[in-house]
Amino acid sequence: MRIAVTTGLLRIPPTYFVTQHAERLIVSGDHEARAFARASDVQDARLGIDVVTAVAETAGSWRTRALRAVAAARPQRRAIESYQPDLVHQHFATWAHGALDAARRLDAPFVTTVHGYDVLTAGAPSAAPVGLFHRSSVDRVKREATRVLAVSDFLRDRAERAGFDPSRLVRHYQGVDTDFFTPGVETDRSDEPIVLFVGALEPRKGVLDLVAASIGLRARGVTHRLAIVGDGSQRTLVDAAATEHDHIVLTGPLDRHGVRDLMRSAEVFVLPTQRDGSWREAAGLVLLEAQACGTPTVTYASGGAPEMVRDTSTGFVVPERDATRLGEAIGTVLALSPAERRKWRERARAWVVGKRSLASSTAELLEHYRTVAG
């Protein structure tokens, strides 16, 4: 099968999830795939799929290229048509016009994976030009997609409420690469327990709740370091906390190898994701990545995040915006005996390998492809 993987704006890192299934299918030797983006910024030379971009990477800054991408549906459509795929798989219901036009002209099945923003925010009524642009794309996907895949049960339910046809709407967990995200050796672990956060330093990710919980734990004599990986509008506030509390370390963004190294060495990974306007966490793959490395996780009961953790078995799910309960859950993990910790780590790894791996997700996706392709 020849598959066109399509999207609007492709930046790698961090959005490996757009191409990872196709890369697996290419490696199998039984399928072909190529990615088609309106604009791209690929900084990982090890990416295992060719990317065809409508707006050249020499066309200015990323912001400039993203703006030009608005008018790039036609060149994207032509590029997809020239590839002659058996199936078109669009990631995000936004930016879909070029891919939809190509699929229609080729009479090819059109599969869309919705990831959250496209359902929760971009599909809402808006009078702003960018809102109208995205809404028109989402509305076409609702009408024309052969199948729509939602990355969690939470998002599937929200998509149905937003007007997606339930008969063409299916939950498909994305999965993570359990061959890449693996536990380290015991010597990788720090003498001082590490509490880890990886994500955007934005209100929706709740990093300030974690900072408050961490400071509270230290005040009660719970020794640990808080490692924060990422960047965003709240960086200044996190920097100020790190200046005042020397157990807090802000690394800035890291590549996936650097993230994996920290996940392997951490005692617990924390994602205090929370509602921000109409936005909710659709899934939270970073929780799965941490567990694949054998690291227990703590998250808020928000959006699809609870579906990424086995509560009280591989981690804890606590009430949203409750920094006190967040701190208590972190403290529980830090207080585990070596034998208990080993069991938690083994369970976390086994659950992701068995239920949320990229390998099983790719096999499931291939069945969707075969079904819609006839």
UniProtKB/TrEMBL annotation:
The keyword Transferase applies. GO terms for molecular function: glycosyltransferase activity. It holds the Pfam family Glyco_transf_4. GO terms for biological process: carbohydrate derivative biosynthetic process. Residues 24-179 form the Glycosyltransferase subfamily 4-like N-terminal domain. InterPro entries: Glyco_trans_1, Glyco_trans_4-like_N, Glycosyltransferase_grp1. The keyword Glycosyltransferase applies. SUPFAM superfamilies: UDP-Glycosyltransferase/glycogen phosphorylase. Keywords: Glycosyltransferase, Transferase. Residues 189-351 form the Glycosyl transferase family domain. PANTHER family: SLL1723 PROTEIN, SULFOQUINOVOSYL TRANSFERASE SQD2. This is Glycosyl transferase group 1. It comes from Microcella alkaliphila. The lineage of its organism: Bacteria, Bacillati, Actinomycetota, Actinomycetes, Micrococcales.
